[in-house]
Amino acid sequence: MIRHDVVVVGAGLIGLATALALVRRLPGADIVVVDKEREVAQHQSGHNSGVVHSGLYYTPGSARASLCRDGRQQLLEFAATEAVPVLESGKMVVAVRPEETGRVRELAARGTANGLRGLEIMDNRGLEQHEPAARGLLALWVPETALVDFRQVALALRRRLTQLGVQFELGLSIESIRHEQDQVRATSATGTVVGRRLVNCAGLQAELLARGAGLETGLRIIPFRGAYFELIPSLAGQVRSAIYPVPDPRLPFLGVHLTRHLDGGVSAGPNAVLALAREGYRRRDISPAHIGALLGYGGMRRLAMHHLRTALAETWRDLSKEAYARSVAAYLPGVTHRDLRTGASGVRAQAVAPDGTLLDDFRVVTQGPVVHVLNAPSPAATACLAIGEEIASQVTALGDRPQR
């Protein structure tokens, strides 16, 4: 049986970017990327709005802020090298209620502290000059926001990795990770992959694999489903860039926003509702075992109590197309449910602490020769190349130290 130098479990953006960084740090190393799907980026990495974030929202000096800014630049350079199309769209963050205007100014100050260029606060008249169909009390123009198809980014990463000699074992569903003497065994129903070191970038499955390997942090990954709609073509032309609501500071979700894509279409979304299966992309995807596990987790019960009103509102918006349309009409007046067509859905892996806290930062834990990526929230896609470097540095730091 071949023993690889490093096994990367998970062929999403973080896993692929980590593999690329490992190639640079470990010249000549035998690296393999394993995934249960038969193609890369089949989950979070391929089911998102495609927004390349600027770093507006994150606390100045935080890891998320620096990773976003560094990762954004690396991503744009990679896309240019690999001929992946990018749309430099910019975005408008729109306050529609008086209590949101102060937060717009706070966002502008935060963005400036994070090094963003060209930020501009404007009143409704200025907003109309950028987005003639939009309305609001105050708005923040963020010119450094861009759009890309992250699935195409992932495919480009796979091509680059293949050229560099990285192997891929796709369609292999890892069910357990075991550390035995000087090696790690990643086992599936159909085979085993062995490596000196292993990186768990399994996204929605990462926490299950970590616990199966004996790592108990108390965290649980709770999947949230986000549904998108598409604006009908006659309205899509009214949206020039991306239009965002002012985010709720209590939540790690940015709210239903409009995004103009490279093909000229405009998506509205996503909302955020509890998924009833770990990979529950549709309302009808229901797993009794998953629901039982959710109900049995104290952190989930505390989360529900903390955010019951928000959860009910999100659920109603998910069930009612009219309610969804009203969210859009708050800043794009005149939009009704007849202007929305059902689009794609995604599932976000959200780590929740035992006290019910939604973790809004990265969580990476080392266990012997294994590095577990347990939480990779937004801007993970934007910052994937920078995050991959950080994870790779932890892997190489393991070196040949004795393992427990």
Q: Gap between N and C termini, in Å? A: 23 Å
CATH class of the largest domain: Alpha Beta
Quick check: average pLDDT?
A: 94
**What's the name of the CATH homologous superfamily of the largest domain?**
FAD/NAD(P)-binding domain
How many independent structural domains? 3
User: What share of the residues does DSSP label as strand, in percent?
Assistant: 25-35%
Give a count of the beta strands, DSSP E runs of length 2 or more.
20
- Share in helix: 25-40%
Which parts are unreliable, with pLDDT below 50 for 5 consecutive residues or more?
Answer: 400-404
CATH architecture tag of the largest domain: 3-Layer(bba) Sandwich
Structural class: alpha+beta
The rounded Rg comes to 21 Å
- Say what the CATH topology of the largest domain is: FAD/NAD(P)-binding domain
Shape estimate: globular
> Helical element count?
12
Largest sheet: 9 strands, mixed
Supply the key terms.
404 residues; alpha+beta; FAD/NAD(P)-binding domain; D-Amino Acid Oxidase, Chain A, domain 2; eight-stranded mixed β-sheet
Task: Describe this structure as you would to a colleague.
The protein has 404 residues and is of the alpha+beta class. It has helices spanning 13-25, 63-81, 98-113, 124-130, 150-163, 206-212, 233-236, 288-295, 298-306, 308-319, 321-329, 384-398, and strands at residues 3-9, 31-35, 51-52, 86-87, 91-95, 120-122, 138-142, 146-148, 167-170, 174-180, 183-188, 192-200, 220-231, 242-245, 257-260, 266-269, 273-274, 340-352, 363-367, 370-375. The chain is built from twelve helices and 20 strands. Strands 5, 6, 7, 13, 14, 15, 16, 17 and 18 form a nine-stranded mixed beta sheet that branches. Strands 1, 2, 9, 10, 11, 12, 19 and 20 form an eight-stranded mixed beta sheet that branches. Helix 1 (13-25) links the parallel strand 1 (3-9) and strand 2 (31-35). Helix 1 packs parallel to helix 5 (150-163), helix 1 (13-25) crosses helix 12 and helix 10 crosses helix 11. It is globular and about 65 Å long. The two termini are 23 Å apart. Mean pLDDT is 94; it is low at 400-404.
